[in-house]
Amino acid sequence: MRGNFHGFDRRRAMGMLAGAAAALALTGCGSKTEESGEKVAAAVVDGQIEKPSLKFGFIKLTDMAPLAIAKEKGFFAEEGLNVQLEPQANWKVLLDGVIGGQLDGAHMLAGQPLAATIGYGTKADLIAPLSLDLNGNAITLSNKVWNKIKPDLPTEGGKIKHPISASYLKPVVAEYQQQGKPFNMGMVFPVSTHNYELRYWLAAGGLNPGYYSDGDVSGVIDADVKLSVTPPPQMPATLEAGTIEGYCVGEPWNQAAVFKGIGVPVITDDEIWNDNPEKVFGLRKDFAEKYPATTAALLRAIIKAQQWLDADGGANRAEAVKILSQPNYVGADAEVIAASMTGKFTFEKGDTRDAEGFNIFFDKYAGYPFYSDAIWYLTQMRRWGQISEDKSDQWYFDTAKAVYRPDLYLAAANKLVKDGVIPAESVPDTDGYRGEQGGFIDGVTYDGKAPNAYLAKFKIGLKKGQKVTASGVSGS
């Protein structure tokens, strides 16, 4: 169900202004400042917010939209929060900022709080009490590679038939190998959705994306295609320079390649795994414990923003595009952002297709942090060697529950239901698992309650008992 139900909450917050008169004097003059200050003061009095001034980090991607909308549409202020949003140079800087306390929370890769909790790369107790969105990524190839594979691709109705299998890349990769050159592609971070989606697509097409071993974060052992890290906004320039032949990234950086005429998106992530979970809102576990009312308030604000983004069939998306195009947010041209945020997706010039579900923020329980989503990421860490040894199914369940916190999400969402802000049917009745899922490009089904059985289904990827060393994969 779609709809915009936040009006009641807005009126409620504004109705408490009398009790906050003293605080309003500090907000300064100017109608916009006064309005924001009034909302903050009213909500602080009502909610006993422990830490009203917060700083959140983000990377310049369109899926940071819930944070920008919560700020610009006043949802943070309604909840008594004065939030500063600060772009970060890359995912490592963002992660370090949250762990070190320079940031109170962040728009975060789903794999980051999981990896930190299990001690991969760094060790810290982080949690993910909210999922920010579904879908939103794509894989782009350079014009050179696209022109090599395009003649062999099947067509349908005069257009290239989708989804496009990575198997069409195999002759090109073989050609590079014969010439003694690596076939390089980019992704944004070793534990990013983009890394796992790109690996999934390549492996489904019969190409090995390589393995990680203890102490080796390059992940190129036995690789047919070598993947490397590039920050999202730098992807188009890196492709244009010829350093990589393609990449997996979130928007607007695939559409940027189309507009610049330097590359062609070949597949969107919902074609790799339909309605896949993407980013999360991450913060330190001790922050949520020390500031429970603040945590509940920030989650309510983000949920309101998510609803606003999906309300009325996407009626607000055009306004969202204008907001995101501002230099303090994504900073890309509005036309480029709109190419994927408003229900369309352009694969190449002249080939724009309907893509209503490319960005989902509220519908389909997009905000609920399912344990099974966390477990999928953990299975991919094991599949490619980032988790170096076999783990029991119970380990996957326990790790997911330590990081993904639907209890915190439900406390916030149920309060919004009670106040008439969001509909009751937008909150799932679940044990935290989605159930068996299909919609994968290779036809493999996923059951979050059977992670080891899931791992055993793949032709490419570590099997039970296998380990990775510098010389390759060993074991049964």
Helices and strands in order:
Blueprint: H1 7-14, H2 21-24, H3 31-47, E1 53-58, H4 65-72, H5 75-78, E2 82-87, H6 91-100, E3 105-108, H7 111-118, E4 126-131, E5 137-142, H8 143-149, E6 155-156, E7 159-160, H9 170-178, E8 184-187, H10 193-204, E9 211-213, E10 216-221, E11 226-229, H11 235-240, E12 246-250, H12 253-260, E13 263-268, H13 269-272, E14 280-284, H14 285-290, H15 292-310, H16 317-324, H17 334-341, E15 344-348, E16 351-354, H18 371-383, H19 393-403, H20 406-418, H21 451-455, E17 467-469, E18 472-474
Parallel strand pairs: 1-2, 1-3, 8-11
Antiparallel strand pairs: 3-14, 4-14, 5-12, 5-13, 6-7, 9-10, 15-16, 17-18
Helix pairs in contact: 4-15, 7-19, 15-20, 16-17, 18-19
Detailed description of the structure:
The chain is globular. Helix 4 packs across helix 15 and helix 7 packs across helix 19. It contains 21 helices and 18 strands. The relative contact order is 0.15. The chain has helices at residues 7-14, 21-24, 31-47, 65-72, 75-78, 91-100, 111-118, 143-149, 170-178, 193-204, 235-240, 253-260, 269-272, 285-290, 292-310, 317-324, 334-341, 371-383, 393-403, 406-418, 451-455, and strands at residues 53-58, 82-87, 105-108, 126-131, 137-142, 155-156, 159-160, 184-187, 211-213, 216-221, 226-229, 246-250, 263-268, 280-284, 344-348, 351-354, 467-469, 472-474. The strands form seven sheets. It has a five-stranded mixed sheet, sandwiched between helices. Strands 12-5-13 form a three-stranded antiparallel sheet, sandwiched between helices. The chain is of the alpha+beta class and 476 residues long. The protein has two domains: 7-134 and 277-369 and 405-426, D-Maltodextrin-Binding Protein, domain 2, CATH 3.40.190.10; 137-273, Periplasmic binding protein-like II (D-Maltodextrin-Binding Protein, domain 2). Strand 6 and strand 7 form a beta hairpin.
